[in-house]
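Q: Start with the shorter request: fold the first protein.
A: Done. Sequence, then structure:
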Amino acid sequence: VHPNVSQGCQGGCATCSDYNGCLSCKPRLFFVLERIGMKQIGVCLSSCPSGYYGTRYPDINKCAKCKADCDTCFTRNFCTKCKSGFYLYSGKCLEKCPDGLEANNHTMECTSIVHCEASEWSPWSPCTKKGKTCGFKRGTEVRVREIVQHPSAKGNPCPATSESRKCIVQRKRCQKEGKGKKNRDEKRKKSNKDESKETRQESKGRAARRQNREQRENNNKTQPKKRKAPNKEQDLAPVDTAH
């Protein structure tokens, strides 16, 4: 071992020096050179930092730099995230997305173009005019549909979600609301009046029956009891004069 090389290192180093830091790493750790000013220091890490990808060899595991336009990568030729100003597509960082794709500024990726999709039309509504369905001959009917898929930035825009057309109906008169309400009120009052009349008649009948019953009871109490008439046959019986 070189005199400047030490084996009693810290921070995951297997061998190190005072000037260059780590020279080799413990098993499964990655060796990477970090620049500090004009000097490069070797360090040992459990995973490679941003802008680097790891490669494993029998004697050493190293961190190598990604391409200049890559922020993170899986290998040198496969990016997983691009630097600002580039869009990720199939592991590559592009300034402009290919034809048939559009740039997503939120994820900074090239994505498929999404067109608008609408549901089927609903049935036509009843023929109306000024919110009414009577009192006219010509009116309007409406049908609607819903948006089930909103478009992306370059997708086809959504169509209209409602349609209207003229319609003809058999003309009929509208029942006046005031008249109908008046009739309903009169019927309700009449019904309440009949019910009240029947109730009063029933009350009068019960009171009369109670009064008659009480009168009979009072008469029975005040009238004297009748004496039993004598038996005429006993009064006319013959008198025994034999003695």
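Q: Next, the second protein, separately.
A: Sequence, then structure:
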Amino acid sequence: PFPRLLEAQLQDQRREHEEEVEALKKQVDAMKEELEKQQQAFLQTLQLSPEAQVEFGLQQEITRLTNENLDLKELLEKLEKNERKLKKQLKIYMKKVQDFEASQATVPAEGRRHERNIQVAVQRKEKDFQGMLEYYKEDEPLLIRNLIT
């Protein structure tokens, strides 16, 4: 049983390695194609007049910036979608907290007194902590603004 397990693991690793090598080969081929395209474009621009070279360079830069802009818009849409999802979750959790607090208000005084004793013990155990959030100092204004909203 043990040698079979090792053999199966070795085969899995070999398969993963082969898939990774294949993916890297595809990536190298794609890079070679891109390099060839860039070389051809460069050779074509050398044959152009200086004014045409400048115009071609500007067109290339505009194309690059447009593609970069589209990528950034796509990223922004993903982040906004994630923000909406997180806001919905926050509303759900806020509702649960309010429901929990309302249910705690109806607990008899004896039960609440026992609960306070437990909370005090927990607070003493956690007294060593400075806080629950870790953040960079430059992110503090953003964190405060998000906490307020």
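Q: Describe the second briefly.
A: Residues 120-127 have pLDDT under 50 and may be disordered. Residues 50-105 form the longest helix (56 residues).
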